[in-house]
Amino acid sequence: IGLGITGISTVKTLSKMGLNVYAYDSNIISKEDEPEELKGLKYTLVFDLDDVLSKEITCIKSPGIPPHNELIQKISKRGIEIVSDLEMAYRLFGDRNLISITGTNGKTTTTMLVNHILNESGKSSMAIGNIGVGMLWEIYSNPEVDYFIIESSSFQLDATNTFRTKVAAFTNISPDHSDWHGSFDAYFKAKQNIFKNQKPDDKLVLNIDDERLCKLKNEIKSEIISISLEDKNALFHYDKSYIYHGEKKMIDTRKLRIPGLHNVQNVLVAVAITNALNISDEDIERACYSFNAVEHRIEFVRELNGVKFYNDSKGTNVDSTIKALSSFENPIILIAGGYDKKVSFKEMFEQYGYRIKKLILMGETATQMKEEAKGVRDIIIVKNMKEAVELSYEVMEKGDVVLLSPACASWGMYKNYKDRGNEFKDLVNNLGD
Q1: Given this model, what pLDDT does residue 342 score?
Q2: CA 288 to mean position of chain CA atoms
Q3: pTM of the predicted structure, to 2 decimals
Q4: If 0-12 CB within 10 Å is exposed, 13-18 middle and 19+ buried, where does residue 272 land?
Q5: How far apart are CA 2 and CA 13, in angstroms?
Q6: Can you tell me the distance from the alpha carbon of 17 to that of 15, in angstroms, rounded to the nearest whole number?
Q7: Contact between residue 404 and residue 424 where contact means Cβ atoms under 8 Å apart
Q8: What is the pLDDT of residue 367?
Q9: Per-residue model confidence as pLDDT tens digits over 101-130
Q10: What is the mean pLDDT of the chain?
Q11: What's the pLDDT score for residue 179?
C-alpha cells in the first residue's frame, strides 16, 4: 500500500524474489500513472482493494500511512496482517548485519556517523531506512555490503512484530507525531519495538540521561550499553571536552566538525555502536574527526556581512529546535513554523526565548507559536520562505545567526523537509546579489 520511496523499493524486491505482488496507491488511477521504476516488473497494479482482500496476503504499508487510515482499518478488519518494510527487512534478510537506530532526535546524524565510521574503518556499509532510502531493494541488491545501518522511525516500528537486530540504539524520547499515533504513549510504545524482540546476547545502546528510557531497563532483555553526557558511570560518557570509554579518553569533542552538545550525544551513541561491532578505538576516533554535518541538520550555509546562516530544516519537532537553539551563543534570528502536529511550543521559548532576537513565523502553526513565544519581543508572521529570508536579511546585524529550525514538519507547504531546506539555501545563497 503506497508507492512512494518505500513502496517502490518493496515492489522491486519482492517481485525480483519471485513473490506474488499486488500494489495499490490511491493516487494511481490508471496504468499510465505507473511509477517509471516499476515498469516491466512482474507485479499486479491494483485499482480496487476488494479485488485482493479475499486472498491470503500480507499487507506492507508505506510508513506515512497511519493506523487510523480508512483503507488500513478496512484491511485490518479482514484479519490481514499489516507490517512495515522494517518488519519485512528482518523476515527476508535477518541473517545480514542489520543495525537499527531510533529516537525522537539525532537518528539521522547518528545513522550517518555510524555508516561513516564503518566505511572509514575498511568495512562496507550503507545507511538506509527513514533517511529517505528504500531499505529492501538496497539490502537485496547489495549482497556484498557488510553492514546496513537502518534509521528506524516510529511509523516503521509501529508495524513490526518479529523485528530484531543484534545491535540497536535508542537515542532519546520526547513528544512527537501525536497526530499520527494518537498519543505520546502510543508513540513511545512503538519506539520500544526497537528492543522488544532482542535476546540476552544482543546489545542495546541506551541514553541513560533520559528518565523515560531509564525506566525501561527492567523490560530490556538484551545487554545494555549505557551512554551519558552527565553520568560518569556510563560505559561511554562525556566530561570536560572528552568522550570516555570507561576510564579511557577516546575523543576530543573540540575537534568535531558538528556543533552542539546534542551532537556530542549523537557521537556517544555512534561510538558505542561501532565499539560493539569491534571497530578499533583508533579507527572510531579518526572517523569522528572527519565527519561533517548531515545536510539540513544545523548545516552551515554561508556567512554574509558577518552573519552566519544555518539550515536546520530537519528540525521538525520542538526538541530538535531546542537543541539547535542551544548550539549558539550569538543573537538568533529564528525562522520557524509549519505543519500543525498538535504540540505545544512553550518549552522551546521558555528555555531559549531570550536568545531569539527576532522570530519570523510561517505556516499553520504561526499564530500558535506567536501566542506561546513568551520572552520573545520581536515577532512577525510571513507568507512564505522568500519573505522570511528577505526579512532576516533586512534586520540582521554583524554577529547574528540566522537559523531555519521550524520545530514543525514541512507538509502543506513543501513535499518534505529537504525541499524546505533547499529553498532556504537557494534564497540565502542569492542574498546580496
Answers
A1: 87
A2: 20
A3: 0.76
A4: buried
A5: 15
A6: 5
A7: yes
A8: 97
A9: 999 888 889 999 999 999 999 999 999 998
A10: 93
A11: 72
% of the chain surpassing 70 pLDDT: 99
CA-to-CA dists, residue 388 to 336, 352, 381, angstroms: 9, 20, 9
For residues 157 and 105, give the distance between their C-alpha atoms in angstroms, rounded to a whole number. 15
For the segment 139-166, the average pLDDT, to the nearest whole number, is 95
Residue 177 has pLDDT above 80, yes or no: no
Kindly report the three-state secondary structure assignment for every residue of the chain. CCCCHHHHHHHHHHHHCCCCCEECCCCCCCHHHCCHHHCCCCCEECCCHHHCCCCCCEEECCCCCCCCCHHHHHHHHCCCEEECHHHHHHHHHCCCEEEEEECCCCHHHHHHHHHHHHHHCCCCEEEEECCCECHHHHHHHCCCCCEEEEECCHHHHHCCCCCCCCEEEECCCCCCCHHHHCCHHHHHHHHHHHCCCCCCCCEEEEECCCHHHHCCHHHCCCEEEEEECCCCCCCEEEECCEEEECCEEEEEHHHCCCCCHHHHHHHHHHHHHHHHCCCCHHHHHHHHHHCCCCCCCCEEEEEECCEEEEECCCCCCHHHHHHHHCCCCCCEEEEECCECCCCCCHHHHHHHHHHEEEEEECCCCHHHHHHHCCCCCCEEECCCHHHHHHHHHHHCCCCCEEEECCCCECCCCCCCHHHHHHHHHHHHHCCCC
Spatial separation of the C-alpha atoms in residues 192 and 194, rounded to whole Å: 5
Q: How far apart are CA 86 and CA 294, in angstroms?
A: 23
List CB contacts of 319: < 8 A, sequence separation 6 or more. Answer: 104, 105, 172, 174, 175, 176
Please give the grid coordinates belonging to residue 428.
540565502
Q: Give the mean model confidence (pLDDT) for residues 240-248.
A: 95
Provide mean pLDDT across the span 206-214. 94
* Amino acid letter, residue 91: R
pLDDT score recorded for residue 205: 98
Q: Is 133 exposed, middle or buried (0-12, 13-18, 19+ CB in 10 A)?
A: middle
Answer yes or no: is pLDDT of 181 > 90.
Answer: no
| Strand-pair category, 125-129 with 97-102 | unpaired
Q: How far apart are CA 128 and CA 119, in angstroms?
A: 14
Half-sphere exposure of 2 (CA within 13 A, CB side): 20
How far apart are alpha carbons 414 and 139 in whole angstroms?
29
In this predicted structure, the answer to whether residue 212 has a pLDDT above a threshold of 90 is yes
pLDDT classification of 245: cutoffs 50, 70, 90: very high
Tell the residue number behind the cell numbers 513502496, with chain if given: 7
